[in-house]
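Shall we go through a protein fold together, starting from nothing but its sequence? Label the sequence line and the structure token line clearly, so we can match residues to local backbone shapes. Would you write everything just below, so we can both look at the same thing?
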Amino acid sequence: MKLFKTISKAWGVPEIRKKMIFTLLMLLVYRIGSNIPVPGIDRTYLSQMFSGDTGLLDLFDLFSGGAFSNFTIFALSITPYVTASIIVQLLAIAFPKFEAMQKEGNEGRKKLAAITRYLTVILGLIQATGLTIGLFRKAIIDKSAFTMIVIIAVLTAGTTFLMWLGEKINEKGIGNGISLIIFAGIAARLPSTVREIATQVSEGSMSIVGVIVLVIVSVLVTMLIIAMQQGVRKIPVQYAKRVVGRKMYGGQSTHIPIKVNQAGVIPIIFSLSIIQFPLTITYFFPNTGFSDFVNKYLSPSGNPGVWIYAVLNVMLTFLFTYFYTVIVFNPSEVAGQMKQNGGFIPGIRPGMATAKYLTDIISRLCFVDGVFLAAVAIIPTIVSAITPLNMAFGGTSLLILIGVALDMVQQLENQMIMRNYKGFLK
């Protein structure tokens, strides 16, 4: 496979090998911390809490590599930082001041990074407080104010440390630190998923044929995800010739690569967060009319709730696919830059006509991407509804794992290319 060949070649380069070792050590620190429990917690009660269908909490537990269900120091994982980053990106669209920072280059990015860090600490503090005095309150042995404050401080410090860890990987390691932390958390659940399937086979609740079908479907979904992640629509661009002094510039042909899956896994995460928010509230107010209504009509384990849940998931995934793609790729801005540099798409007038042409292409790609992401999002829900298999480790997890792995391969290749260029220039 290309992945293993690239890693093998990169390992042979001393500079890159140091970065790879540093990255692995940082991820090892993360996994060790994910097994250090928060003090003063009744572990027996925790195991009872997560013995059944826990809705959105399954997603949190998946991204934290089991740290959430075990209520360890990294129980919040990196989700406050991801939420803070998304909020800052939305602010850059809604408010001109944040948009101006985004266009200021390195200084602007440093300011936005600082705002993201502060917002991460605030969100981590809020989430830690909510979990301590809300969801996990009954699991705390000593409910004194001092114990509560200590637990809140430990959880907030844990997510802040992970933010720092991710930034250090960005600085001295290989790959995107935050993505790798999420990758490590999901990958850590693989052994337990395999063990669960083996247990179901031994108990007779799942047949060997079912396992074979599951493996075949997983391979096909993996191939589809790779194809979509690698899929690119190339828009041809021609630059006009310009005479500057005695020299002629331009005249070359190039293209604009537009990824089919521009939004990544963000639309699925947004969709799950919204539709499972009512289900999460029921954990704080059990045995009420509201909880009965949500469990029947909005829960993936309810009837007809599972189908309502699936339809809402598809609709919201489509909505956020279009919304987030606009954030990542702005046709008007691209058209303006092309016109300013003397570039044009053959057969299309520069300016507004180019922006409209790019918008039409993005709309068609968004539809294909929306269908793909919606399928990835709802297939695990449908499979869990009609089979005994718990698909907590489903298409979303595969999408993240494959996306991060492909990004890692690309960064390793770029590192080796840069090293070769440096050697050539010497």
Observations:
- The radius of gyration is 24 Å.
- The chain is about 70% helix and 5% strand.
- Residues 60 and 79 are 8 Å apart (CA to CA).
